[in-house]
Amino acid sequence: MQVHPSRLMKPAILILCTGNSCRSHLAEGILRRALGADYTVVSAGSKPAGYVHPLAIQAMAEIGIDISAHRSKHLNEFLTQDIETVITVCGNADQACPMFPGQMNRHHWGFDDPAHATGTEEDQMRVFRRVRDEILKVFEAYASGRRDQRAS
């Protein structure tokens, strides 16, 4: 039995946002868990904030995903890597996104930025949870499609 070369490589998926402090980290954690070890999932920003938002870390911990070791990165860190798929999760990143070597796919799914939430910490957490749950639904559906595609 011959193995197709694409089955030997681990596809790399880059999730982009402007600040790389909330949405892209939520998506990275969710997609990494959903796809497992057969994929490399990373995130970056076009203008990184320099930190991962503490409420994003808390919102993910509530669903059993630890992103506390994530760091805010600039998309330039990945320009020389073989990125198979780029997914942008905010409008600014979609417009600022360059093409990557080997890039075959590009998707844009925009989500509200929970970092702009106001009010009490609980008010802000409600926004983080809502955005997390929206990202969860979209990225788990995407992961399911990728797993089906890889199995065929």
TrEMBL record:
Signal peptide: none annotated. SMART domains: LMWPc (SM00226). Keywords: Arsenical resistance. Residues 11-145 form the Phosphotyrosine protein phosphatase I domain. CDD domains: LMWP_ArsC. SUPFAM superfamilies: Phosphotyrosine protein phosphatases I (SSF52788). InterPro entries: Ptyr_pPase (IPR023485), Ptyr_pPase_sf (IPR036196). One of its GO terms (biological process) is response to arsenic-containing substance. The keyword Metal-binding does not apply. It comes from the Bacteria. The keyword Transport does not apply. This is Arsenate reductase. It comes from Brevifollis gellanilyticus.
